[in-house]
């Protein structure tokens, strides 16, 4: 299993072969993990990934465990 590498930020294009874009709007995208990539926070496979460049975010009520990773430019929310 390949773990997402966010050492120098997150580049979705490096993982596009295994992530499916679900929605995208200004400063935010929601992706499904189709390739069993590992979470950069815990190492376990994740289901969905929200990548946001916004300063404020509202996520609703996740019904499963989640991890949060911060790069210099983005916030990544990964649900398991």
Automatic annotation (TrEMBL):
**Pfam families under this entry?**
DUF7385
Protein name per its UniProtKB record: Flagella cluster protein
Q: Give the organism the record lists.
A: Halomicrobium zhouii
Upper lineage is: Archaea, Methanobacteriati, Methanobacteriota, Stenosarchaea group, Halobacteria
């Amino acid at each position: 299993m390949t773990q997402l590498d966010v050492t120098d930020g997150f580049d979705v294009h490096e993982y596009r072969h295994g992530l499916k874009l679900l929605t995208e709007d200004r400063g935010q995208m929601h992706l499904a993990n189709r390739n069993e990539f590992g979470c950069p926070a815990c190492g376990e496979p994740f289901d969905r990934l929200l990548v946001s460049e916004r300063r404020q975010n509202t996520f609703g009520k996740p019904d499963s465990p989640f991890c949060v990773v911060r790069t210099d430019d983005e916030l990544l929310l990964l649900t398991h």
